[in-house]
Amino acid sequence: MSQDVIEVEALAKRYGQTQALAGVSFSVRAGTLLGLLGPNGAGKTTAVRVLTTLALPDSGRAAVAGIDVVRHPALVRRRIGVAAQDATLDRLLTGRQNLVLVGELSGMSRQAARARATGLLEQFELTGAADRVVNGYSGGMRRRLDVAASLMARPPVLFLDEPTTGLDPASRQRVWEVVRQLLAEGVTVLLTTQYLDEADALADRIVVIDSGRVVADDTPQELKQASRSARLEVTLAAASPHAAAALAPLVSGPVQVSDDGQRLGAGVDPVPGLATSIVRALDRAGIAVDNVEVRQPSLDDVFFALTGGHLGNGTPDEPGSGHGAGQAREGARA
Amino acid sequence: MTTAPATAPASAALSREPGTGIARRIHDVWAMTRRNLVHISREPTQLSDVTVQPVLFTALFVYLFGGGIPIPHGTYKDFVLAGMLALNLVTSTMGTGVGLSSDLHEGIIDRFRALPMWRASVLVGRSLADLTTFLLCALIVAMTGLVVGWRPDAGLGPVAGGFALVLLFAYSLTWIAMCVGLNSKSPESAASVGFIVVFPLAFVSNAMIPTQHMPGWLRVVADWNPVSAVTAGARHLWGDPNPSATINAWPMQHPVLAGVAWSAFILAVSAPFAAWLFRRRTTE
To answer: What secondary structure letter does DSSP report for A56?
Structure first.
C-alpha cells in the first residue's frame, strides 16, 4: 500500500551466533503508531537499528517513507527521528547544548535549533535542568532528553526504542501525551516497548516478535479477542486437596494451584453465571471461598501465550496481576 | 505499482543527497568543533599536556641539559626552543586518538550516525578542536621561551611561519592519531599505541640534540625524521642556531619544504584512511 510509511519484508540479520532477525515482515501506515513488542533479545532493537540505517540487514528489504534504507541511507536519515534504547546523548554537554547540536547536525541553523530546543525542553519539563551537564541527569531525565532530541528536526517518521523504560509514572504520561500529539499531527511512529499497557494505550497496531520472528500482527483489540478464554482466579479460605478436582469440570485446561494451595487459576469460557457455578461447586465439596474473579484477557495474557511467556526482566506490571499467569509461564518454559 | 507513489519523491531527491554540499559540510564541521571545544572546557585538567607540560619540558631542557650540550654558533636555549615546540606538540597529538576512541564507545556515535550530517565532520571537527589546543600549546612554549631568554633573530613573518610549520605538522599527526583511535578497542589501548608511535618520533630527531653526535644508522633515521625537518625548518625561519644545515641530507638542506611535504603526505594518506576506518568501524 502506498500509505505504508515503514515497510519491512523478510528482514534477516545475524550477529555472530545470534540470529537477531529471522525473516521479519510488517508495515506501518502513515500517521499511525505501531507497537513492536517482544521479550528481551527478541530482535526489537535490531529491527529499529536496520530501519534507522545503523545496521545493515543480511537479507530482506526495509523502506522508510518509500526509501530503501540500504540503498539510500542518507535520504532516510533526513526523514527520521530516533530515540535509541541506550541514551545517545553527549554526557559532557548540557541538555540544551545536546539538543542544539542535534538540530544543527540535522541541518538547522543555530538560531532555529536554539528556538526549537527551548520549546522542547519546556515540553518535556526539562527547562530547570536545561543548562546543567547531562552527566548529572537522572535516568528519567536522560530518557526524556533523548526523546526530545529525536524531535528536534520535526521528523515525519519517529522511532522510539523503549522510550519510557525507567521513567516514573508522571514522566511516562508526559511522553505518552507528546506521542499522542505527534500522532495527531500526522507523524508515523514505531515504538518498541516491554510495557504492554503502553502498547495498549498508544498503538494502532501491535507486532509481537520473538526470537527474531513475528508471532502476531494485529490491532490491540483483535489480539485480545484472539485469546478467547477468560481467566479464572479463585482464592480459598483454606487450602483443600479437593479444590482442583471440583473446579475441573467447569474450566478449560489444567487448573494451576499456588504453593500455599489457597489460590487456583485456570482458563475458562466466560459463560453467564460462571462465578455462581464455581462457588456452588466448591461449596458442594465443602470448600470455603474468599474470592472469585473472572478476568477478561489482557494483552499480558496474549503476550505470554504468544511468546511462551519468557518475558525477560522488567515486567512493569504490578506483581499481583496474574500470579496464575506466572505459573502458566513456568509450565510453558519447562 | 503499489509502491510507485512512495518512491517517486525519493528518486527526485536523489540528486541532492544531504551532507554533500560544501556549505553544509562547513556547518557540520563547525557544530562538531564547538562540541569538542565544550568537551575540552569541561575537563581542563586534560589540557595539562599542552599547558603545564610545555613549561616543565622547556625549563627542564634549558636548565638541566643546556650546559652539557654544546651548540655551534649559538646557545642551547636558542637551539632547543624549536625542539620544545615540536616535542610538546607531537606528544600532544595522540590525545586526539584517545578522545575519538572514547567517542566511539559512547551512545552518542549512534545518534550521529542516524543524523543527516556529513559523517567525516566527526573526524574533522575533532581535529580542528584539538588544533586550537595546539595553538595554546605553541603560545605557552613561546612565552616560556621568552621568559628563559630565547630571542628569535628573524622578523614577525618568518617567526609566525616557523610556528605555522610545526603546527601544520602536528595537525597532520592528529589524523594518524585518529587512525590509531579508530583501530583501538579502548581509549586506554589508543593511548598506549599512541605512546609507542610518538616517542621514537619525537626523540630520534634533532629536536633536543644535534644529530651529529648520534651513531651512524640512528643519525640517518633522525635526519629523515619529519620531526627533524619541521624543527630545522622552524630554526631556519626564526634565525636560531640550526646545526642540521650542515648535514648533507635533502630534508636538512630544504627543511621548510621537507616539513610541508611531509605534512601534506601524511594528511593525504591518513585522512582518507581514517575516513575509511571510521566507515568500517561504524558499519554493522
So the answer is: -
**Chain A residues contacting B, CB < 8 Å?**
1-2, 4, 7, 15, 49, 52-56, 63, 65-67, 72, 74-75, 77-78, 80, 82, 84, 86-93, 97, 101-102, 104-107, 133, 149
Contact present, A142 and A51 (Cβ < 8 Å): no
User: How many CB atoms lie under 10 A from the CB of residue B194?
Assistant: 24
Residue with cell 605557552: B140
**How many angstroms separate the first and last alpha carbons of chain B?**
32
The b/e string for B111-124 (b: 16+ C-beta within 10 A; e otherwise) is bbbbbbbbbbbbbb
> How many CB atoms neighbour CB A318 within 10 A?
7
Helix locations, A185-308, DSSP H: 196-202, 220-226, 243-247, 274-284, 299-307
Number of domains in chain B: 1
Is position B120 within any domain?
A: yes
**Minimal C-alpha gap between A134 and chain B (Å):** 12
Residue A271 predicted with pLDDT over 90: no
Please tell me which residue of chain A has the smallest CA distance to B103: A90
C-alpha cell, A276: 455462581
Residues of A in contact with B7 (CB under 8 A): 66-67
The answer to whether A180 and A25 are in contact (CB under 8 A) is no
Tens of pLDDT, residue by residue over B45-100, are: 888 888 899 999 998 899 888 878 888 888 999 999 999 999 999 999 989 999 99
Q: Where in chain A is the domain with CATH 3.30.70.100?
A: 227-333
The pairing of strands A213-218 and A205-210 is antiparallel
Q: Which numeric CATH code is attached to A227-333?
A: 3.30.70.100
DSSP 8-class letter at A227:
S
Is residue A152 within 8 A of residue A207, CB to CB? The reply is no
Kindly give the pairing relationship between strand A230-236 and strand A252-257. unpaired
Distance CA A331, CA A325 (A): 10
Q: Does domain A4-224 have CATH number 3.40.50.720?
A: no
Question: If DSSP codes are grouped into helix, strand and coil, which group holds residue A254?
Answer: strand
Q: What is the pLDDT of residue B18?
A: 52
Cβ contact, residue pair A88, B110, below 8 Å: yes
| Nearest-10 crossing angle of helices A110-123, A139-150 | 130
Residues of B with CB under 8 A from a CB of A: 2-10, 13-14, 17-19, 24, 27-28, 31-32, 35, 38-39, 42-43, 106-117, 121, 283-284
In angstroms, rounded to a whole number, what is the distance separating the alpha carbons of residues B284 and B274?
A: 18
Pick from A49-63, A120-134, A304-318, B56-70: least confident: A304-318
In a domain, B14, yes or no: no
Flag if A54 and B114 touch (Cβ within 8 Å). Answer: yes
Strands (E), chain B: none
Rounded to whole angstroms, the Cα distance separating B54 from B86 reads 10
* B276 Cα to chain A: minimum distance (Å): 17
